[in-house]
Design brief:
This protein is an alpha/beta fold. 33% of the residues lie in helices and 23% in strands. The strands form two sheets. It has a six-stranded mixed beta sheet with strand order 6-7-8-3-9-10, sandwiched between helices. The protein has a four-stranded antiparallel beta sheet with strand order 2-1-4-5, covered by helices on one side. α5 runs antiparallel to α6 and α6 runs parallel beside α7.
Length: 273
């Protein structure tokens, strides 16, 4: 990050922060404390899932969109989920985000931010999504009659919560939309509207940001800029970002790339970032 770029600022109490270590004396004790801290860091997960399946329809028309998928996503990482159309990648991420419900199975677990969401009611899932997940979609989903600032604040307003104005302004500065905060969507470019959507997803400090084809409606230059901004959210905020995409260039921004085919997680590779 260059000195001309405003900082996103850190979360006050992020879920991935290390436990404060007690004062110790002696090299051996210090090494033991460091080893325990490293082990704890490895265990801190933003998302974990076990034995997740999703079937649509029944009988002879049943389609298995997901087949016994298990995975772990450490906090503060950028993960790309890739696969051809109909592979199950969007279904997987929608289950992780509480947008879709996996098949009933006593072994199924989906834990986000420390909360197991498998088996929650629709009302409970609605509250969970509101409080723990930020969403960025290919369609910007901005309210056309509201300004950028009002669109960013809208989810918190609907939840009866007051937005942190200082944090909103910091996010707007980093995302390059400060001068557009009083503009309505039809007064902004597609790239600017997507930046507003990203700010909206980040304002509530969610455990994970789910981005489903976030660059699908953008040109290549703007797509690169949006991916770079998501990368900065990971690097500067420690945010966990999961992107569903067809675009192989997303791997250039990701720490890790998950490949889904025919409802199965077939590959789990490190990204090139």
């Amino acid at each position: 990050m260059t000195s001309s770029e405003p900082s996103l600022g850190r979360y006050d109490n992020p879920p991935w922060s290390e436990t404060t270590r007690p004062d110790t004396t002696g090299a051996e004790t210090g090494r033991a404390e460091a080893a325990r801290a490293e082990s704890g860091a490895q265990r801190r997960l933003a998302v974990s899932a076990a034995h997740v399946s999703r079937t649509y329809g029944s009988g002879g028309t049943a389609v298995a969109a997901l087949k016994d998928v298990s995975l772990e996503i450490p906090a503060g990482t950028f993960v790309a989920v890739m696969g051809p159309s109909g592979s199950g990648k969007s279904t997987l991420v929608h289950c992780l985000a509480g947008l879709d419900t996996p098949d009933r199975n006593p072994e199924t677990r989906i834990v986000v931010g420390g909360q197991d969401i498998a088996g929650l009611s629709d009302d409970q899932l609605t509250r969970f999504r509101r409080d723990h997940v930020g969403f960025v979609f290919q369609a910007f989903n901005l309210v056309p009659t509201l300004t950028a600032r009002q669109n960013i604040e809208l989810p918190l307003a609907l939840a009866g919560k007051k937005a942190d104005a200082q944090r909103l302004d910091a996010l707007a500065g980093t995302l390059g939309i400060t001068e557009r905060l009083d503009h309505r969507p039809d007064e902004m470019s597609g790239g600017q509207q997507q930046r507003v959507a990203i700010a909206r997803a980040l304002l509530s400090q969610p455990d994970v940001v789910i981005a489903d084809e976030p660059t699908g409606a953008l040109d290549s230059v703007t797509s690169h800029e949006v991916l770079a901004l998501l990368r900065r959210c990971v690097d500067e905020l420690g945010q966990t970002v999961v992107v569903v995409t067809h675009d192989a260039t997303v791997a250039e921004a990701a720490d890790r790339v998950l490949h889904v085919r025919d409802g199965v997680l077939v590959d789990d590779a490190q990204g090139v970032n």
